[in-house]
């Protein structure tokens, strides 16, 4: 699952704990791991499939407004059909509150919500960077009863787009500290990558990310190429294409780039893994190399919860995470030589790796467990419900 999908599961999990009397229905555009995880928490899952055109419609890639407008025009009939289908489904579910979790669903949810339902947008990315969505969400924001963002950076960006009158509440993401922990199985990254087993003492450095172009895959590869060969370091890219939009790099291009940099035999590509915590535990150092401001930076928290030191560009919301503890080395995203120096520094200093990893674990446990979300999320819901129904919902209320 991607970060936004993981956040949705966190929300379902904490609501099950904090408000056990509230029935939960999850509406998804496709079946898959997210649907399974939601069912694991006894959520009522409805799969209302996106058409291929609607699934591929994205607003963050290249091509310009002209290309986007053409794709939007071709997708309009499909989007209109989906809006009517969603409105019909929501009419049967009769939700007191609708929580939308992605840009397309923010728009569709606002247009399809039944009369009397509160609407909460949960925004996981910068709105201003998406020309089409910024215009649509500016017009539709008045239909919301609250907007949750995953960082203060995203809250500030959203406020600039939709206006100051909207109720915007930043809630930093959390992780499941029972899943992301230093103890547990570790993946065999060499086997998954098709590499021969690394020699004893090799320091394993990994980038765990989707193929979104701004995740800094090439910065990661360039940094690895600059590491002094005297350090026994092997790199791993763990991830792949999770979405059908066009704003992604190509795994084939990354393999070619590694060969061109002369590190084809020192970098493994595992593809998407089903147990990310086991992947973190198999690494000695985690690199978070986003070249654009990060809305949050979930990988940083997941790595910290597994007791791993982090090297990060610390842009956007990632800087907010780092303000909670001393567990990462920060680099300039324009300087692959600094990434190489940081990797070399940690490779040569196991004590520093241990110190940063221990600090990160402590930070994750103090600030990023689901217990905090269990306090913060229902409070936003209940305030939104009070706006619609005129009376504050209590812990025992059904919604």
Structural write-up:
The protein has 399 residues and is an alpha/beta fold. The protein folds into 2 domains: 3-174 and 369-389, Glycogen Phosphorylase B (Rossmann fold), CATH 3.40.50.2000; 189-367, 3-Layer(aba) Sandwich (Rossmann fold). Helices cover 46% and strands 13% of the residues. The chain has 16 helices and 12 strands. It has helices at residues 3-18, 33-40, 52-56, 64-93, 103-112, 131-140, 152-162, 189-193, 217-225, 251-260, 276-281, 298-305, 317-322, 336-347, 350-367, 370-389, and strands spanning 25-28, 44-47, 97-100, 118-123, 146-149, 168-170, 203-208, 233-238, 267-271, 285-288, 310-312, 328-330. Strands 9-8-7-10-11-12 form a 6-stranded parallel β-sheet, sandwiched between helices. The radius of gyration is 22 Å and the shape is globular. It starts with a helix and ends in a 10-residue tail after the last helix. The model is unreliable at 395-399 (pLDDT under 50).
Q: What would you say about this model in short?
A:
This protein is of the alpha/beta class and 399 residues long. It has helices spanning 3-18, 33-40, 52-56, 64-93, 103-112, 131-140, 152-162, 189-193, 217-225, 251-260, 276-281, 298-305, 317-322, 336-347, 350-367, 370-389; strands at 25-28, 44-47, 97-100, 118-123, 146-149, 168-170, 203-208, 233-238, 267-271, 285-288, 310-312, 328-330.
